[in-house]
Amino acid sequence: MTNDSKNELPLIFEHEFGDIQLSMLNTIEKKVQIIKYKRKFETQFVSTLGLSNVSNNKNIKSEWFMEFDGDLASENAASVLDYYVSMLIEGNIPFPKRGSFIIFPKKNDHIWPDDNICGIYFTFPAYRSEEFQVNMVEIGIFAIWVVPITNSEKDIIENKGWRHLEYYWDDNNIKLHNPFR
Description:
This is Suppressor of fused-like domain-containing protein. The chain is of the alpha+beta class and 181 residues long.
């Protein structure tokens, strides 16, 4: 990643998600920040910033983001991103690719109290603006959308594969930012 793209990335994210409101350093290397954006829509966003500097075996650069209902605690989503980014940096989980998923360690683990979520799923930002996607390609970074998944969605992935899950979401117009679905 060039110095120019390092400078462009926060602007691209702000344009898509809203102005940066808060930032916290990742607990492991202190090189990755977890960013909270000011509410621009009915949904909220948190993302990584600096994850694209963490190398993987294929030299693919990526940043993660989560989208969720506006009335939910953003700190919960930020903590989940921080936890799994830390695991990635420590080498405890592989770099995700489209269709990768992680089931939470305990059945009663949740991101938000009483949500229907059992884990997280990694995909591309199919529902982001075209300008966002073009800008990310230009700077050579994949934006990976971290989507909380339910038990029934986990079953679809395990039994039919990730493509069927994404078709299911599209066919049923599932609101992926709602963890109580």
